[in-house]
Amino acid sequence: MISLIELLLIEFQISQKDLDKAISYQGKYGGYLEQILVNLGSLPEDNLPELYSKYFSLPIVELSDWIETELPTIETEDLELLKSISWSPISIKNLNWTFVVKYPLELKANEFIGRKGINATILIGRESDIQALNSRFSDSQSGDVDEAFIGDEEERLRELASEAPIVNLLNSLISRGLRQGASDMHLEPYQGRYRVRYRIDGVLQEVERLAPRMQLPIVTRLKILSGMDIAERRRPQDGKIAMKIANQELDIRVSALPLNEGESVVMRFLRKESVTYDMEVLGLADDVQQYINEDLTKTAGVILLTGPTGSGKTTTLYTFLNELNTDDVKIITLEDPVEYQLDGINQVQVNSDIGFDFSAGLRSIVRQDPDIIMLGEIRDKETARIAMQSALTGHLVFSTVHTNDAASAYTRLLDLGVDEFLLNAALVSILAQRLARRICKHCVQADPDTANLTLKYDLKALAIKFNIAHINLVKGIGCEVCGHTGYKGRIAVNEYLRCDEVIMKMPKDADFIAKARDHNRECGRRNLLEDGFYKAMLGQTTVEEVLRVAG
């Protein structure tokens, strides 16, 4: 039989250094070696079921095989004991019991088995599996969740949300999302259960379906942590959690939204230490990066980023500011909210509740004598007008607007009421952006459909136009590293429009967008779809992914 240390080193690739550190800690303070490694961030908690399965030669539970089966009859006192140690009894036939367990050598469980004279069959499960199975016992006792909380409801909710199983389950879901690189975690009622989904590289993936009775304690727990009113279930609420998990500093923005069947909660993970604001990381094509570098040398003017929510506009702006952040310039940002703190940059958060909105904030910022200003978003006429006038008085201004492409930013600003002469005088360039998923480097292979895709989307003509010698269409076949999606990380897909003399002289009428696109094409620049295909032909993403984000 292989030892636990050998299993950790060989099968789970734990470094000798981390193992020595964990063994030293265990010698001083006790505890399970594998749990110490989890706390150190060396071993993902999701790997524990597989570790225990291999070490103890026990099977891992298939939750779907048991979640709908008939509940065994068990005394309340016995059930509470098993729940407290993350064991779930799923089958009882005389003295033959089947358990789903988190840790097989739990002392209290083994004492219970010996005392009862039980023949035990053990299956390994995750904390969430065990919670889902155990919650069925509670569901059978009360069909209506709300009826259980009549009278002194708030105090009972607090007690329920503070129980160890709920705390452990929520921590486990958050840790798992972080390890998988999720940007958001969604919890919502769905088909009679409580669904958990992660947004990974911009795409939602379902990871769990919890029993409906888990909804109220989980939502309550999140509301307590984020400073929301736990008794309020009729109106939307927002909150924030600051926590440290696996040595990672983390801010979580929490949004709760009432639905017909309960509440939907979305948590956005903001990692304080894992964000890198580097031009190389953005994935800008060489020609676009050269254009941007030229624009960043300007001392005055407005540089705009456009795109939908979640297209990485703020990250790109932060990267530009990071390039310009030197001791001889003063940079002030106005954001809603300030998501990441940048060293050496003065960041201001708007607060509409006290009348400190973007326009009021911008008026105050200008009096602070900045060289560079960043506005999180241009939302109204007043903000847009002050931004343009600030550019004319010697400030370099960065901001974002929500439009589909670069040229549409002009029409959007005109719709807000900005004078055409101000736009012509102030705008330097506009960069439209989408985020496409990168192909996983660990499972990349040639795309077997290359010939068909090349013909269907006329990629040969594009390759000639953009000087690509060899069309290299590839795809990821899926592996453990990328969660079997074939993608890992994201890359920017861009359309760059320089506000040159030709653009300035064009009338900003109904034909402007089409004429601006034609001019951009004549200058040899790519639109969003072409830039996506360009990066697909270089083997950075796939044609399917380009069509999803820019088609």
UniProtKB/TrEMBL annotation:
Record key words, sorted: ATP-binding, Nucleotide-binding
CC per GO annotation: plasma membrane
Domain Bacterial type II secretion system protein E: residue ranges: 366-380
InterPro entries: AAA+_ATPase (IPR003593), P-loop_NTPase (IPR027417), T2SS/T4SS_dom (IPR001482), T2SS_E_N_sf (IPR037257)
Any single Pfam family the record assigns to this protein: T2SSE
GO terms for MF: ATP binding; ATP hydrolysis activity
Similarity comment: family membership: Belongs to the GSP E family.
The protein, known as: Type II traffic warden ATPase
UniProt source species: Shewanella morhuae
